[in-house]
Fold these 2 entries.
Entry 1:
Amino acid sequence: MNGIVTSSNMKPIAKGVLSGVTVSFKDCICVKGLPAQSSSKILKGYIPSFNATCVEKILSQGGTIIGKTAQDEFGFGSFGINNSYDLKNPVDPTRVPGGSSSGSAIAAKTIKNHLAIAESTGGSIVNPAAFCQVFGACPTYGRVSRYGLIDYANSLDKIGVMANTLELTAKGLTVISGNCSKDSTSVDLPAEDFSKFETFKGILGVPKEYVENLSPEVKQAFQLAIEKLKSKGIQIKNISLALNAKYSIPSYYVIALSETSTNLAKYSGLRYGPQSDFKLHYNDYFTKVRQNFGVEAKRRVILGTFTRMAGYRSAYYIKALKVRTLLIEEYKKAFKQVSAIIHPTMPILPPKIKDTKNLSPIEIYNMDLLTAGVNLAGLPHLTVPIGEMVGMLITTNHFEERKMFSVGGLL
Amino acid sequence: MKVGLEIHVTLNTKSKLFCTCSTTNALPNTNVCEVCLGFPGSKPTVNKEAVRQCTLLARALNFTVKNNLVFSRKSYFYPDLSKNYQITQFEEPLGVNGSIIADGNIRLKRIHLEEDPAQIIRNNKTLIDYNRSGMPLAEIVTEPDIKSAEQARLFMNKLSRILKYLNITDNVKADVNVSIKESGYSRCEIKNVTGFKDIERAIISEAKRQKKAVENNEKIQNATYGWDPLKQKTYVMRLKESEADYGYIYDPDLPIIKIPTQFLKEKLPELSDEKIARYTKQGVPLSDADIIAQDKDIAELFEQINLDPVFKAKWFRREILRVLNYNNQTILQSKFTKENVSKVLNLVYENKINEAVGKKLLEKLVVEDFDVEKHVKEHDLLKIDDSDLIKKVTAEVLKNNNSAVNDYLSGEQKALNFLFGLVMRQTKGKADPGIIRENLQAELDKLKSK
């Protein structure tokens, strides 16, 4: 299994920096004429009539599209097990590949000279990239157009890339970046080539709360990486991200689920996806069609509907938005002290597949501890392999992708 | 009676509120794209022209316009909603605290932008036409300040004028809240009434129904009614209404942006009320000014004609509007121009043609433009102010109609009109009727005294 669930052979429309590179897209990114299901039964049969902006950009820069990759349903998952594909970690098949961009990481690891276009809401790029031991980059929110991305949580969703080399990762992110008139959240900034970075000079910060509860393998790999950086004359400084450590997960889940419960409302079997008996009253019809959601999707719709209900809305949804602002401020303050922030991408090695069956939803949500904050803040972040199935997460200030890659170049 | 209105105005834009689909009439489901169909992966982008029109409307209705444009998602499941949420404004509407003066101050709570849902068509099947999905609406919410159906009509007339002056169609739908004193103001809502006329009728019908119910000792329940435009009656949709929970969130696809300052500073056209004030200051009677200012295009033509305001106002109200109504035309559809109307009115004003000729000319000009001066010359329509000629004709008429003269002399007043008509006819209607009458009377008086 190479992570691909729908194969294609879509030739580029022009030569470019990706000539000779094969490219896959996470299932939630619309490629005209190819099924886009977000690995959900409720989107069975949906074939988009339009290309996502990033698809157009890839085709105009020489990339050949070889298919769509598996994911957790709608991006709801941290391990790649919330779908019907039976995915395995290519480094150790007894372990999960991570998620939710599971297929992207597997494809980046197993297909030669491959660029996997993935998507992150709360860590869905760097989590599987770290577990599958590839590079994974998530841009500043707004840097890459979301047009054509099937939404999970719009204020958090970002399209990014994975590849086996830092260079291809940087090139790939460069190609898909840029202002897009079809996405109102897209930012208008001059094009930058992220692969042309200078040698990093500056201070790296390590948040103490983010290195407290690490598994021994992760701790060891991270220490070795720190030594390597120090040996290159890089100054490492201990910092604190106390608010993020405490509040990023609750804030992230309240915002993400509030948004997702509205996004998933459109799946009601009227114009695409499975249908039901049209003789039914519309309420019953919708209910019947919406039984096609998986358990986790249903859980998130119910939670997200609750957090925005009259009477609870200000205590949850509005509060979470306020907390989000504080968390961003904390990162902004940190970047006054250090150029970039580093810590392990995931606190543990990918779990054994058999062990994931007994995890509660809360235990799974807590896996996002090290990635929720950067995603809430919309900061660019990059995971670089630093050991077997272990990655280091490099985060820089908004729109400093080039600096982020320059830190990656040290490892 | 207390009446509150939630009025939906369809804005006059070329494309829809959040996509580039056309807003023109078309075959069902042809003005559609991935955005207004709510296809997964599509994203909305705001139509600036809709923001401009809503901002101007807000300013014309004396709203305080907010600096930021904030969109929210209003969630409810219904087959006409392509995304099962409607993009609207909740936390921060485009404008707050507006007003319309209509026999008192009617407070307007808020105005906001939102997308129209698709249209559900029910025959033997239920069909959905997504051409309407995403059409731009401005929603205006009033306080329950309207106290009678007459005041409602006045209010809607004012609103309709403002919409027309801003080149926004007055294509409106409204939810109407009606309550009466006799029931202790227990509120009933009539949903989705189309057009200003039916809104007024619905208010009257609902108030009547409530009065009757109170007289019969029935309790007025808080309820939602529909309006049947064919039967001109309200009907019960839902009893015992609970407050719906729409689970609003900020629409994360539409970041909060500043309302462009050019929309806040753009000069508003002079509106109906201001025109009326200006006309009456010039001496035009209020009733004339009001009718002329009702239609922006008529008012503009009125202003372009350089003549005594009182005189031209009388002619606009009595003649121009009469001729337009008779021909069922608007000023723009008609062949009236600043030049041709101006010529006719000037000829009348300068006493070069008499009023009857002026009216006839207008009746012709409404359907066909022609050179007025040339026409008058060719058809020999200039007024005869040659009193000798009139005297001569009068003498002839009296001479040739002995029996009518005798009738008059023996007290038959009608005979005078007959004789008058004959003189008019002999002068082809071009002579001044006043002079004819004067002459005729003088001659007859002479005969009488003999």
Entry 2:
Amino acid sequence: MNLEEIYQVLKDKFGESVLLLDTELSGDHSIHISPAAIVEISTFLLETETLAFDTLMCLSGVDLSAKDEEFAVVYHLYSMNHRHKVVLKTPLPKSNPQLPSVSHIWKTADWHEREAYDLYGIVFEGHTDLRRLLLPDDWEGYPLRKDYEEPDFYRGMRVPY
Amino acid sequence: MESTQSTESKIIELQPFTDEMIVNMGPQHPSTHGVLRLELRLDGEVVREAIPHIGYLHRCFEKHSENLSYPQIIPFTDRMDYVAAMNQNWGFCLAVEKLMEADEEKEFAIPERAEYLRVLICELNRIASHLLSFGTYGMDLGAFTPFLYAFRDRERLLLLFEKVCGARLTYNYIRIGGVSEIIPMEPGSIDEQNFLDEIEEFLDYFEPQIDEYNDLLTSNSIFSERTVGVAVMSAEMALSYGATGPNLRGSGVDWDLRRDEPYSIYDRFDFDVPVAEDIPELGAVVGDCWSRYKIRMDEMKESVSICRQILAEGLPDGPVMAELKAVRPPKGELYFRSEAPRGELGFYIVSDGTPKPVRVKGRSPCFSALSALQELSQGLMVADIIAIIGSIDIVMGEVDR
């Protein structure tokens, strides 16, 4: 199935939770969905036979600009059987970046979500072990946010070099 | 220890389990392939839980990338998987090139000569990477000799890489639009002939060596005792955890991006994709440590075959760089994946049309494969942990980025 057909299937099934089909930008086009529906949509994408998205290639947090009000979490999915892919995007308000976890659907999401939490401060509800992954536990702030300012010192060590 | 005494009946049950013990393995343990710390919850010698703690080699690749122009990012990809840096360069350049191609107004094509050089060098790099994996795996499991053999051969490859780009480990050879010309090699010149002859000499020498290594380690009974049937990863589990490359094929999934989603000029070459099978006489089952290891040994032969096909055709004439005015992808985003020696290496690039990316995410194959360790190691012995880490072939530089 191509992206338009997948979009139509999702739109028919989930209605308003599927926000729009983004074909404006060059490169990959994506389907925007509302964060609250991510678990239902993911389960549907995995379990429907004609879709069968059995691999989560990549899960990334995105912050486009310090001026934006929103983050995004981007899911790149692929089906080994049907050999088709889809890109899902969920906008999240920066003031309260929370969305349900999909780590029980694709286990690879476990560490990818921890990484997004670590670097963007996006909270994945229902994740069983949401701790910092790459940075030390006592690190302050979320470095990949565009408005992040690095600290001068960490435990007595100078940070900027 | 849970109390098993009942105060009422005063019967003391037999408690076969000893006290649980927390042991830190690493961060600088010789068999952790970099700086990895495992928190092991042990019951005697049985592993109840192995929790990986990563991040010791985190160098903020993604943050750095946001402040650099695209060509400046390439040396940073070298430092991700430093034993297969050519493939990392290529993965990133492919992603940027695909995004630039999405802009219909700007047309450019990678010169044929560059494509051939890319495939040739990257397949040699794949051999070098698998050799390191083979050597260190033997050493992890107590066989020191294979390591010396592997490094002897890998050294010849590193000298070859030094001849094309001047570096042994972090190459910065593959550039956006072609390959580096830092050491000129004119088409048809004596330099080119010497270079190709040297590769051919290496391949002639190396191909029989693979069989010798199989005799030395693969069919070695001490080695197979440690790896056969250990830590079986089913195909479903491998897919769910996002294990790719040799780890996925070791679980019996017939999947290789070079064949199934051909990029560059891989569709012009004949090569097999080794997939694990049950081997009853040895006892090996699909998805165990031995199968994952064996896939790499078989893949080296396929890489040799691809290199030979290129040498038979010879390198095409022409330039090695496309004519690019500036590396400035259009506003948009792209996820592109390529088959690195350790699996699917993906780069997710978001561009706003300026010379610097807004977001670069490196999807590392080792990162996903390592996350399966916790489930794989449950209930096994401490020594098996070493066997698993070596068999999923991680490089911590890529896990932590």
